[in-house]
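Write out a record, focusing on structure:
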Amino acid sequence: MSQHVAIVGATGAVGTEFIKLLDARDYPLKSLKLLASARSAGQKIEFKGEELVVEELTTESFKGVDLALFSAGGSRSKEFAPHAVDSGALVIDNSSAFRMEENVPLVVPEVNPEAAKTHQGLIANPNCSTIQMVVALNPIHQVATIKRVVVSTYQAVSGAGAAGMQELIDQVKAYAAGEALEAKAFPVQIAFNVLPHIDVFQENGYTKEEMKMINETRKIMSVPDMQITANCVRVPVLRSHSEMVNVETEKKLTVPQARKLFENAPGIVVKDSHENGGYPLPLEVSGTFDTYIGRIREDLSTENGLAFWVVADQLFKGAALNAVQIAEYLNAQ
């Protein structure tokens, strides 16, 4: 069924990916409205051979809109999403504003698509690093029941938006020119560096990003007592997040069994050979739709343990693509 669609935050890093995906996936559109701040209003963006003019986001922007894809930050979502819902639009929100609200489904189509049907006008898109991890965890959990998860992330600068990507590029250029490196998007220099700090610190010593992964995973997988610890690290990579995941299961799984589960699961591509380059890399995964898994092996530190490497394009699967997949799922019902 064709829909009138609006993109909120259309000029941002995820918003521009929404536009690309609606075109690439031939989403059934009656019209497309591009919304952003007053500062961006008036910009022209090409879509299917036409130039669309970006409009200023207001409370009146959603009249006649069927689907509103939000990616303009939590404060904007809290302010404008209720107006979109009141106008009759389905909101799929990419911010963290509503993710942990009890009456808002938090959805990854490969894991809990049925939850999307319970929406009351608003669906939350999970955190980018959470999405690719639960896609990988779900086939293991369905067969062997996961007891504990330990994850360390290697997150690209695009997780901080267009400004994060530009800062890495600018710092590399400045370094090559022998100039001073400026840090604005990140608290310290990110070029040629590793930053074990994403989002704000919490009272328990974890960062907000780490607690998102813990709490969102439990909600998506409907396992409120799953034991999870997360270590979130920013690395000087432009696009695509990588994760090293260790799981402990109730039932023993061999490596061949785990590999077969991954190979048969929706949205997963396995690249796992013991040779140079025989594993997924963020550089090659950028611009793709699937979640890639490699380095599958037993975790020798525990009886029923597995370790594996997970890579996905967090602007696509970790953000815009996941939201579009939710919309496609509901539109097909």
